[in-house]
Records
---
Amino acid sequence: MVYAIYRILGRWPKPQNRLLLIASYIFYGYWDWRFLFLIAASTAIDYWLGMLIVHNPLNKKRILVTSVTFNLGLLFVFKYFNFFVENFAVMMRGIGIEASLPVLDIILPLGISFFTFQKMTYVIELYKGNLEAQYDFLDFALFVCFFPLLLSGPIERATSLLPQISKPRVITSDQNREGIWLITWGLFQKVYIADNIAPMVNTLFAPNWSGTGAEALIGIYAYAIQIYCDFSGYTDIARGVAKLLGFDIRINFDLPYFATNPSDFWRRWHISLSSWLRDYVYIALGGSREGEWRTSRNLFITMVLVGLWHGAAWTFILWGAYQGGLLIIYRMVSRSALRERHLHELGLFGKSLAIIGMFHLTCLGWLLFRAQSVGQVADFVHLMATQFSPDPAALRSLGALLGYASILVVVQMIQYTRHTASILEQASLPVRGVVYGVLFYLMVLHGGVSDSFIYFQF
Amino acid sequence: MGEFRIPLSTSSSSAVRVAVSCARGLVFSIVFLMTLEVATRVEHTIKYGAPLLSRYTYDAVLYSVDEYGIRGRPNATFEKWQLNSFGFRGPEFSLDKSPRKLRIACIGASETFGLHEQAGNEWPRQLERVLREQSIEAEVINAALAGMSLPQRLIHFQNRLLRFRPDAVILMLEYTSYAGLTPAKVEKRLQAQTVPLPSRDKVLDGLKSLRVLTTFRYSLIPKLPDFLQQLVSDFDLYWKLQLRQRELGSDFRSFRRVSQFEIDAFRQDLEDFAHTASENGVSLVLVSPALWLNERNLRLSYISWPYIDETWIREARAIFPQVAQQIARENDLPFIDLSPVVANRESRLMKDMAHFSDVGAEAVGRVIGHEVDTSLRQLLQSRHDMSRRREP
């Protein structure tokens, strides 16, 4: 219904924006209406701080610090307060002091990490002078809560999204076609692949699981596929919906499991977050300009923050530290034997080897990411090292995993070799009909059951 | 030389554009639907052994016909319905009886076979569970097949089931038992009333041969929100009734009274059942069904039984259970009436006029289990005594 009215209002961007704003607030309030006040209030504060920057250029640094403190403070209260309090209490107990500290009995607002980071780009870019102030408060509110991006991103920059909101949008048939393809492919990744693999992964990471190292390894492969399809699926749906509304949203995943090294991986995985942290944290810390040690330190801090962004748990911090460690090691060794140039010289074989190696390093990271505790990580690694026997149960799981992932592999191979995400761009009408038919069939008749997207919790 | 172009006015060029778009949309839709149909058929061929190209319905995959009429196809599977190597729904069992277990066969139609229940929840399986709870070791065979009329069941019992040497047979006398217009019965009725045989509607028939529609009906509709499910169901019911009405004209719902012929045939079949059971030392239990009569369920029944009117159904509900009860009394057979079991709980226990939900099947299994408890214990005791007498 929203879409129909939106198209009817096609020539008037302002009414369209108001409609999208109402739809976005209803969408968010449907989950929990109380958090509408939170999102509205934080929008108003950042709008006001933005106006202050425009009108007080001499104090703009102080205003920026206020804005960043406010936004990170918001995240801290809702997401990290209890984690820090609990760990502080443990630390105090370690030195013999029994501390009874208060914890907050609050639920984490959906998508808070996404819309907070998105909002922050506005004030930061205003400060840098890369953006003109948005005077229309309602348009700014739409930028913060644009419903396709609200819950799980991509984290769109103010420099990219605000101009699209302000200008009239033209929706072409090519955009419609691409939007429909993105939605279908995103749904397929989520409903058919991720949701069918989820039970396998949930069984593996259940506290009382027992099995062989081979089963554990296949379970970790399964999680690698699940988290990718779950998150990339959501992103594709969001981009597709935005495309149908005439918005162009940046890609968030660029075949990440085809990465040949850790640096390449972070250019392909959750691009909107990694580039956000690169631009606003890594470069702000000095980037790679101040020598080897400082570069490594900056990389490490940035990646720990990536981990912490995902949630308040030691496993996330460890995962971030692991990714930081990989990047630092890669920087060190890439100066010698494993340079990308050398990999190219090795040809297809070398590249395949690098892709497989990097995939396994990523999988090890996913183990840290998904594990319930650090102890579970140790158990899994021990199991894989000492009891690796490919039993029938492991082979069955492998068969199921390959079955579910086969279409993904085929599609990504085409995307990789053709260097394009739109594999149906050149396809004839009957071929499109067959592809949509097969995807629809598998989704509807063989889709899995799931409550929500993994990244909603972040 | 310049490119030759047909000069088009603005309005005609936009008309061409619309026409091209429509044509493209049509081609896409046809290919899309064909892909769904081919995918369904390929999957059904691989999973259920269904024919790839010819028409088939779920009963064509599950059933076959031999000299004694329809029977379950051994080891056939379709969607949630799985038959064992003897062609019965349920787990495998051996031809040889265990001396420590009673063997009970349940005979009936779709209500017993299990139409809406999840696999393993149909009432014969629930009965087995209840008996186990009551510490009665019994092996329950679901020997029902959807759509089986009473005469067909009698033939089924006499020629197929007796070789399994059941200790007891529970005969569910569902609506199909007395409304089952088998070709033979209709022929007889035709002679009496000169009513034409219902011809299969061409539109319905054509749509039924599209596997994808049936498959999506089972898979997609239950996933829709309740109000949409209701909407689809209402629409489905409406147009099917329209087709039936158009097809039969004044004969639609023309059976308004239960004829003496039907009562006599029913009585005769039941007496034959009782006689065969007693001759073969099988304890027969008669179960009278529950019917949930409301406007919607009646309308649904007119699709499968288009000649039968509400007045016939209401009369039948009063007459046939009485006849069954009378025969039970005359032959000293246990008789269980399910009407009080579902009374005032129909919406929870039943899915339509005659079929049970999972909860309903459990309630039926429980009631039958309690009702037959004493007689089954006596059976077990007599078998135990017999085996002790045989011991040296």
Note: DSSP finds 17 helices and nine strands in chain B.
---
Amino acid sequence: MELDFSPAFAGWRSLLSGALVTVEITAVALVLGCIMGLLVGIGRLNPARRVVYALCTGYVAAIRGTPLLVQLFILFFGLPQFGIMLPAFVCGVIGLGIYSGAYVSEIVRGAIQSIDKGQMEAARSIGMSYGTAMRNIILPQALVRMIPPLGNEFIALIKNSALVSLLTIHELMHEGQKIISVSYRSLEVYLVIAVMYFVLTGLTTLALRRIEQRLRAGGMVQ
Amino acid sequence: MNTPQSVIGTPAAGKPIVNIRGLRKSFGEHVVLQGIDFDVQPSQVVVVIGPSGSGKSTFLRCCNGLEKPDSGRVEICGRLLADAGRMLDDQALNHLREDVGMVFQSFNLFPHLSVIDNITVGPRKVRGLSRQQTEAEALALLDKVGLRQKAHAMPASLSGGQKQRVAIARALAMQPQLMLFDEPTSALDPELVGEVLQVMKLLAGEGMTMMVVTHEMDFAREVADVVVVMDGGALIEAGPPDIIFTRPTQARTRDFLQAVLSRN
């Protein structure tokens, strides 16, 4: 049997707009994930604050211990039972954001804990409060160490976003499936989609490498 | 016998900057400080010596609340830092720490900030001053420690001795009444020790009240008003350096001094 890429190429407009939605949804979810990850990561620094620590630890355990697809379906198909009807795009963003937040929180916690504890002591010893020291001394250093693992998280998120095609969001995967449903050219279309995802993740990798190099040149990373 | 009280808390002295009674501290089962009584008068330079593990660093760290005493009274700069296992509340503690500078063995400069920003970050973030308001003072401090030309360097490019001198300037930027030095030269290559001690001597000459944990016996002999010997979590002896170094009353002091001085 011969390969025929013409249906895939003929549908380039919809594939491109799908890729754009993929980028949108991933970017918004990443911002949400970073905010959640920062809060939860800091919440898990001190087990002595029991309630906060327990809530944050429970969140991370629940999210990491269940499939993303199940979480997305709970948001999209489950919540309407309680009269909560969120638009598909919102469900996708929230679902992916909450999911990546759990992983980002571990990145945040690890990076903060990797900063020598003498830094916090030095900051406190000149009269800084915990919060001031965290914002001005610890987080700026931790942020630099977070960039490589955050890059991996971003790439994972781009790939995981394919799952939200099942929530009727017209992202790359969903657009591809629409083309397949009229052309029956599964292999060719999926190959084209795979290449498009690869380009997206590849560009992300390059951008991150650039950022890291700049930080290194600026003396931010030893 | 040279007890801490008889030597340090002379009746004629004014209100002490450091006033400690019955200070105890344990880490789990391990008793680190077992009931310390101690005073430091304004402008005094107190050098704390003793074998490693004797509780010197913990003692110093109790003076700015980096360690929480289990019991006893710690009064610093006229404010009650700890009493019977209870600490000053967080806000008041932060405020007190502005008056108590600390210099660490491993410098702990902020590696993401330039030298001058390391010095001004305290006044800016704690006191809310602007960069312009703090810059002149920071440059003057860099002059004092002999590093004005390094104002815009990053800490990673400095030698250990230079880092420690910046760390001293950083602590001074808060205009403290008391400076704590926790083995400030122990992490330095031998040839860099002198430049740091030089700055400390300068400070002592200006009348700064200082508590110094160190193994530099020459510094103790030359600069200290009072030398305190610690062993096993207790102050075993205190007195002027010429007495401690020549006529110590305690056998453990003699043993320690012999071990340290025979090394050189």
Note: The longest helix of chain B spans residues 190-205.
---
Amino acid sequence: MTGGFRQRMAWLHTWVGLWMGWLLFAVFLTGALSVFYEPITHWMQPERQTVARPAVDIPRALANAQRLLALNAADAGHWQIELPGDEDYAVHLHYDGQRGPEIRMDPESGALLPPARDTAGGRHFVTFHYELHSGMVGVWIVAFFTMALLVALVSGIVTHKRFFADFFTFRPRKGQRSWLDAHNALGVLVLPFLFVISYTGLIIWWPDTMPAGVRMFYTDQRALFDEMGGAHFREAATKSAGLRTGALPNLPAMLADAQARLSRDSQGNDSIERVSITHPGHANAEVEFSGPYHYDGIDFAAARHYHYDAATGTFRSAEFDDEMVGNGDAPAPLIAGSVLRSLHLARFGGTMVDWLYFLCGLAGAGVMATGLLLFSVKRRNRKLEEFGRHSARVYDAIDRLNVAAVASLCIACICFLWANRLLPVSLDERHEWEIGAFFAIWLAAALHAAVTPPARAWRLQLGGAGLLCVALPVLNAITTPWHLGRYLYHADWRAAGVELGALACGAALLWTATYLRHRLGTGASAPRLATGGRR
Amino acid sequence: MSANTLHIVSVLGGAVAGTICFALAMDRHFERVYGQPASDTTVRGLRLAAWACLAALLVPCVQGWGLSIGIIVWVSSVSLGALAATSLLTWTPRLVPLTGAVAAALGCGGWLLAA
């Protein structure tokens, strides 16, 4: 590390970018897919898809649900009735001590419906992108890499300062120059997004990533969250049940009152999502009606809960809570934290913001991928010998790792969706199998990348991922009663969107694969390509 | 079309038009599109048009999404508009002026219809 400021920054950017880029690519790709986790889950549970959605008679659905719960779970301390929503046309029932698959009920007839398949759903991508499915250790790893990303961004601005002269410039088919152009163009144009998404991503985990303050003033994190409003939930759970009366609350009467209150509190939206009954059949039973998260502004997104005395049906209290800032009287720093969290989760602003975040996230993954390739291409053109006499071998290993991090992950992501359709529906802990399939296929593809010359591995793996994407609608048509045409006909945009997205990604991957093959086939000099293996 | 769809059309149109103006205000891109260097007046005019576009773009953003979310929509759509401008300059430089004009028309039209 010698030379002036810019050289030092270039050194920092190169090495931070290289060692961190592999995992950051995975975080950005799965993070971009996370934007659409809900439509992906919807696609992954074909049992919940329906052609007709008759208007639901909610009072009747509630009465049916309560009858079913009284029959099956009379002794449970807590019941929960999830009313039909976007995700499913059926009512979902939960109770304390419940085992086995989900309980779905037809809202009209009260008959039990077959449970939807157990799936990790789009949540898999969300969880993977912030904790790599390994709990707090994963959170710490991703947080560390995110810090490194901020370092890489700042040093990258200094390193690539020519991008101001090269704004809007992309010169294709020029080897290293093209990769540099692509890296600069993508990087600088989505720079605001990259900063915001990495910084807010760190802030979400403030109690864990910046634990000093919490340690100083509280015995542990639970004490902190109790003060923020968490204590309320535990108190409710430990309240005595009172005498057993066997009487069930008159839910429809309370429903009308709760709907009126919700409508008044959230600008006309009266859609109650959930009804919970604590100590059903006992003297101290309480009913809670909960509405959806309502965005009063990004600083306070609260769910409304209305509590009723089950025996008399009288209104007791209303509660507005935010998962981050309790019931709205939080101090300013917590509210600021909640704003940053909302910024990261993109849970506001609807379809437009979803798509902007998705595309910016993909562009971010593109910055990582082009940066990694640039590292390799540059070293193929110039003898840098940064690893002494082992250089050739280390560069070759880096080439192979690039394939394993970028192309193999694309295969694993699409195979996760394939696994959802191919694994037996009755499998025990099926969602774990899906995640297992994701990791197993990633590992297998990475091993393939390790033993295949990189040029060939890029072509095969990108082509393979492309074919799997394009064939996804076919697989769905074979394994379920649904297919793309039927989704479109019934205006199921979420499921159709997943398949159209897979088709678009598949086309892009196949194009890249044939482009690489064509470039090699026409005898273009290998050093000008990211794909030529160096031996 | 719903007001929301019209706002989306308006924002995307404005973002593409604005970033195309910025690109054309750079000598390298102007020459590639028109085959001759731009005069100083033209460059100044294009820069002015670009800033005007981006400033005007804030209006449908804030109308459609409110101030706080509108700013996010503004920043990220300008980013994506710039990526679109880069792609157009790379693969279809001749179509850049026409695309810019159509985008500007969509931007204005969408906003007028939504209002």
Note: Confidence is low (pLDDT under 50) at residues 521-535 of chain A.
---
Amino acid sequence: MTTTALAPRPGTGHYRLAGVLRSEWTKLRTVRSALGLCAGFAVAAVVTGAIFSSIQASQWVREAVPARAGFDPTNASLTAALTVGQFAVGVLGVLCMTDEYSSGMIRSSLAAVPGRTRLLTAKAAVLALVTLLAGEAVSFATFLAGQAVLESDKAPHAALGQPGVLRAVALSGAYLALLALFGLGLGTIIRSSAGAVAAYAGIVLVLPLLLAALPGHPARFTPETMLTSSVAAVAPQAATGALPPGWDGLLLMAAYATATLAAGSVLFARRDA
Amino acid sequence: MTPAFPAIPAGHARFAGALRSEWTKLRTVRSTRWLLLALIIATAAIGAGVSAAEATGVAHSAARKAAFDPANWSLAVLGFTQFFFGILGVLAISGEYTSGTIRSSLAAVPRRLRLLAAKITVIGLAALLAGEATTLAMFFAGQALLRSAGAPFTTLGQPGVARAVTATGIFLALLSLLGTGCGTIFRRSATGIAAYVAAAFVSFLVLGLSGLHLGKYTPEIMLLNSVSAARSSAANGFLPPGWDSVTLMACYTAAALILGAVLFARRDA
């Protein structure tokens, strides 16, 4: 007597991290809003950056000599684009998780990949890679377009070979990826799209306005201020009380993102979906 | 012979009924309570923290006293808490799409513009009341704080002060309705909130950098520097205190609501 298998044996390895990474990439790629949002905002950021570089150039030409001394062409070309971009990547990070709760997909995802930490790790890895590439592309494109505009308008301009410039441009792109992970962490903790987008916007856009009134410049530790006034700067912006240009802001943002994701991960592992 | 169904009472799809049902919805959804709670806590906590530090600073600085506008100062926290008004407006409509209630709402009130008009009326009035209450509470708390710190303070009877307080409450209601416009256009909570935040905050961060003085036409700058100001500080390049900014904000809100209404009337729910 022979027995027939009732169902084909499941292929080995489909619960491995590689398979989960592939499924997360498919989700990110095919969810209606995600890549459209990313591409639209990338173009908007570069265009905004170029326009504002031109405005900065015309301001520089009009300004008196002492006011010209603090001009940082790298920062001038990047700030406007990063202000737009930081909002876009954060919302992308939030929706990457909360869309699954809105649609109910999270239950299918967890049925397919019961290891919750593994699922979140794959999601974070795919999101980080995509936003890192997009962030660097936007950062370099904005910088190059902005410097071309500044040069043609006869204002000071920077080159990637000058001290600190390559670091500012590259770290700004990386910072956008950290903001996306921060958004993912908030989305995992809060689970509702509306709540998490509101929390992200509150922390990134509203908090610095509020802290600006307090003594001791606490706003320098907020994500937005660190990005536009220290990570994306070559010359120290001491007057605003910002952190010095360089790695400090990036490392602190990495700490924020890690803490948020860690809290999200603990909650994700313990709660019902 | 008895009719198969009881007769439908007349008037249940009239505007008054629609208003009542919108009020019930706004009053009973969870998000309204959360937002009101957050508004009160944020305003009180931030107001107390920031203001106490600031009031002492003003009291000890002659330079700051000279240009000090106590009414404007006591309302500054609204630059932060206006956020909750906008989100309230967004969720009032996008929440219906999230939960699917929109389909029941349209079955009950098939005239789409009537439904939307009822919603706008209820949100507008509720936000106006909340806005005036918040503004007055902050004004009185702020003036009491200034007085006890020995800094210059003002009263509603001073020129321009009652106008600043009233206009600020109206402005907050307009921001809520701008949120409703965003929610009607985008239908999803996340996108609606993102659009509101872009209009209310990103706009001024980006345009404020421009050096073209376009920042003064953005909602946040109008709220902080002209609507809530009792007196003009001539050289600063903001719109003058008073009704100009309220009118401009009303135009933005009307534009968003009209676009929302056109889409709402034409699209599937």
Note: DSSP finds eleven helices and no strands in chain B.
